[in-house]
UniProtKB/TrEMBL annotation:
Gene Ontology cellular-component annotations: mitochondrial membrane; proton-transporting ATP synthase complex
Subcellular location: Mitochondrion membrane
Protein name: ATP synthase complex subunit 8
Membrane topology: Single-pass membrane protein
UniProt xrefs under InterPro entries: ATP8_metazoa, ATPase_protein_8
Family, as annotated: Belongs to the ATPase protein 8 family.
Superkingdom to which the source organism belongs: Eukaryota
Signal peptide (residue range): none
Major subcellular site: mitochondrion
Amino acid sequence: MPQLNPGPWFAVFLMSWIVFLLILTFKMSNFNNLNEPTSQNKDMKKPESWNWPWI
């Protein structure tokens, strides 16, 4: 049964994943975040406690 012999297809499988991962990391490293995070307001109010009417 030829499908049990990994010789013919394992090298192709391995090389295709290596190429895929190299391209993917190259694309991700060139990604620019268009929405830069803004600084949050330092003067934040203290949160109010919840009102539990059944207690």
